[in-house]
């Protein structure tokens, strides 16, 4: 009886091993919290109307601006997320590159993030700033720190003081 039990255990372990070996491998990009590309709707609202509106496929990546230089913008900024994720500023950068418009931002090392200064040559200046919101709510962290999900509605809105 002892041998039968041991044989059954070994057969069950072998069957489980074969099942696991033949199971499809989950890709890292398909798990939550990874830098899988997502499609979001991006709106840029200037003081005189909409400057851009469209669907953008984005993921976190390095961003380069004329004023701020090149820095990562992948949600790991400031320790906000444990791994790279899509972010609002990365979405703005992707839209600008794909749809051929400009934006600029200052890099603040103390925040580990950009401050968006101008989009399509519309500057916040001394009396306004570019507010970032996702699904109608201002982000509580910077645009390189906030994690986007597929279907999110991202808005950069020129906001007067």
UniProtKB/TrEMBL annotation:
Under InterPro entries, the record lists: TAT_signal, Transcobalamin-like_C
UniProt domain Transcobalamin-like C-terminal: residue ranges = 116-159
One family name in Pfam for this protein: DUF4430
Span of the signal peptide: 1-28
Sorted alphabetically, the keyword list is: Signal
Q: Which domain of life is it from?
A: Bacteria
Q: Does the keyword Signal apply?
A: yes
The UniProt record lists the keyword Signal: yes
The identity of this protein, by name, is DUF4430 domain-containing protein
Q: From what organism does this protein derive? A: Streptomyces griseofuscus
């Amino acid at each position: 009886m002892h041998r039968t039990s041991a044989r059954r255990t070994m057969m069950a372990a072998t069957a489980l091993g074969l099942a696991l070996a033949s199971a499809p491998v989950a890709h890292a990009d398909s798990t939550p919290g990874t830098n899988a590309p997502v499609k979001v709707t991006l709106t840029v609202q200037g003081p005189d109307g909409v400057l851009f509106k469209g669907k953008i496929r984005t993921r976190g990546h390095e961003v380069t601006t004329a004023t701020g230089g090149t820095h990562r913008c992948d949600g790991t900024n400031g320790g906000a997320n444990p791994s790279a994720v899509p972010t609002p500023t990365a979405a703005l950068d992707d839209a600008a590159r794909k749809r051929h418009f400009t934006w600029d931002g200052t890099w603040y090392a103390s925040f580990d993030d950009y401050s968006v200064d101008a989009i399509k040559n519309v500057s916040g200046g001394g009396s306004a700033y570019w507010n970032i919101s996702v699904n109608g709510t201002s982000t509580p962290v910077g645009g390189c720190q906030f994690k986007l999900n597929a279907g999110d509605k991202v808005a950069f809105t020129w906001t007067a003081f």
